[in-house]
Amino acid sequence: MTTQEEQTRAGLRFPAGFAWGAATSAYQIEGAVAEDGRGVSIWDTFTRTPGRILNGHNADVAIDHYHRYREDVGIMAELGLSAYRFSVSWPRIQPTGSGKVNQKGLDFYKRLSDELRGHGIDPWLTLYHWDLPQELEDKGGWPNRDVAYCFADYAATVHEALKDHVHTFSTVNEPWCAAFLGYASGEHAPGRREPENAIRGAHHLNLAHGLAVQAMGARRVGGCVNLYAVTPATDSVEDLDAARRIDGLQNRFFLDALLLGRYPEDVLEDLPGEIDFIQPGDMKIINAPIDVLLVNYYSRFTVSGAPGGRQSAAAAPTDTGSPWVGSEHVSFVSGGQPVTAMGWEIDEGGLVEVLQRVARDYPPIPMVISENGSAFDDVLEDGRIHDNERRAYVEAHLGACKEAIEAGVPLEGYFAWSLMDNFEWAWGYGKRFGLVHVDFETQERVFKDSALWYSEVIRQNRRHEPTDS
């Protein structure tokens, strides 16, 4: 190891007890979609609809984690992870989304959690990462208020079964994506383009979070949001308004609801249609006390109210509408930063901004970075992947985490996205985010250089003992 590398890793040391993790989601890795009683999800249906997924891919096998979880936990242990964030497949637990529970599904997550604990890895369980049971979608999906109550029942079932196996539960992963990519733009399942129903869906996803927190009782529970730093392209009135709008719908609509128990008035005014779906008591439920805020961060938005830019933050692989309900006129422009293979600008400074903002503007809440990562066009050469761009991305964002901690942000952990290459939603298998390379034909796993570097950073931190002062 060079002196420079030693100094870099020493400089990335974090407080004792900092959670070093990686994250995945059930639909993207498990496969086994028709095994052991699992029901059909909206993503199973979506991937079978022509034109929805790049190259017609599906996740029927994905990376076969359902059968290879012991091997994958061994990989985590070799990397030195102290925590692993995974999601539970709702249709694997309740095939129709309500009613009868599939014990084989619960048993799988018990085995996974116990395997993790046996290797000294703390399981962080996410209840929902977008795989709604198809039967609930057939009844209206998230725009149907009843689905939020079905989710609470599901949360109580999972919690009761796994409360002795899992330390931290979180509710809904990135409700913005589930609502606005699923029901406004149609880029994600179920592929609907119904802007007003997307708003209803967003509220019911927030309500589902609060109901689930109540249903799980006093166990350590968190909510999860995907946050972006938002910058106006210029200081013109139009661009400043564009930034207000996008920040409102992406960030404040969810943060204000979860942490303050209200929606921003300016955001509600931006939205079309009647806001008649918020019932008395809803906001108090959504504002149920949580123990930790999970923050997913990837990039910054630079926006303009003038025509001529892209209508979404990055190109979609298939034909889609706009997810920006009520602000479809806003365009996204280059901020002049390098981009990943997803077309997302690399801006670690934005991570410091969003963390400091939450710490400044909201009641005190411990935070973790629950997703952060990058896709690049990896090349396997002589059994190695020299992904220097991904390594630099992770290093820069860990530096941002450390800067935020030093500024007083109560940040308690970092989860890289993703542990392994997997099914990347509408992009199929065309984009790779993993620290670990997966050959999708043979299922062979290979550590990328970024994984080896991350492992050494973790090792340096974990052996660091705090000194008395």
Automatic annotation (TrEMBL):
Keyword DNA-binding: no
Molecular-function GO terms, alphabetical: beta-glucosidase activity
EC class name: hydrolase
Keywords noted in UniProt: Carbohydrate metabolism, Cellulose degradation, Glycosidase, Hydrolase, Polysaccharide degradation
Catalysed transformations (reactions): Hydrolysis of terminal, non-reducing beta-D-glucosyl residues with release of beta-D-glucose
Assigned EC number: 3.2.1.21
The protein's name: Beta-glucosidase
Organism for this UniProt entry: Nonomuraea helvata
Lineage: Bacteria, Bacillati, Actinomycetota, Actinomycetes, Streptosporangiales
